[in-house]
Amino acid sequence: SVRAAIIEPRCDGGDSDSDDDADILAAFDRISGTGRSLPDQPQPVLQYLRVQATRLLKTLDSTRSTAAAARDPALPAMHTLGLARLPQVRRLWAEVAEEATAARVADTEQDDSTEGTAELLDWKSRVVDAFADVVTGSVAGAFDSGVSSASDREFRDEWAAHFADRALQGLGEARIRNFFNLAVEFPDSRPALAGLATCIRRVPSLHRRLMVEARRTLERRLHHAGTRTEDVLSVLAQCVKALSCLFPRGEAGAAVSEVCGPTLNHLRRRRDAVAALVADMAKPPGAEGAHVLQYHAPGEEDDDGASPQRGGGGGGNFGGHADVLRVLLSALSLQAVVREYR
């Protein structure tokens, strides 16, 4: 039965090679004869198991059926030989799942909606978590693995937690790399920012990464003599609004200071900064190029003129008109702004 499980799936795929089959059969025969460990030359067995794991993940993704995937004849053979609990085999499974997760994250990043984050987690549960259930024999109607151990349950729990974090970390890293564009495109990018907020809440290490990469990107893109002051003001205002979608009011202020601080200092050194700010303030809402005081389209503001907080951060109105202006004025002279405005 073990030999049949090895040869049959390869023949079905149409890519069987007799020499490879002989190597795999010989390796499995050595496992059967020497106990529950991989042979001295484990590559043929591990390569075969990698192919089977990849095929199993694809089956789970396409059929959405753990019962169909659990009928893979190689699975009971693995348990008969005691391979399913070997560290080398479980590391191999993790590598295959990592590759599948990375590919799925790349696909999800093409969808800037909040739903993309939820769909990614749904895929992880439906495919990656189900994979761990199938290979440990815990799926109803599947083969009998012979042993129902606490170690298998612990493995499945750790697997589920790891790949939830891995999926969100991958998506969060991708959106952090794209944060400059997300800020410039605000408010159209609000759903993508809400998804990034979810990633940061679940994977706290992303917070520090966002602070560092967003600050460096602003410096790299804006700290040049050839960059117009109007563009520096515009991007700073957009960053304040974008960061307000990621964090509650108290945390948003600290995030703005850390991300925008060096660029605010750069703005302070520009001789035309005050004139550019006043010119932007004088533009009517909705006018082309008006960024500093415009948070939402006209009619969406609260009675006090501040815009309602939306997105993943939750709480407060940070990022509204008064907050954006307050941040910019922290780098400029209020008296100079008043004189220029008059």
Automatic annotation (TrEMBL):
One of its GO terms (biological process) is metaphase/anaphase transition of mitotic cell cycle. Residues 297-316 are annotated as: Disordered. InterPro entries: ANAPC2, TPR_ANAPC2. Residues 158-270 form the Anaphase-promoting complex subunit 2 TPR repeats domain. It holds the Pfam family TPR_ANAPC2. GO terms for cellular component: anaphase-promoting complex. This is Anaphase-promoting complex subunit 2 TPR repeats domain-containing protein.
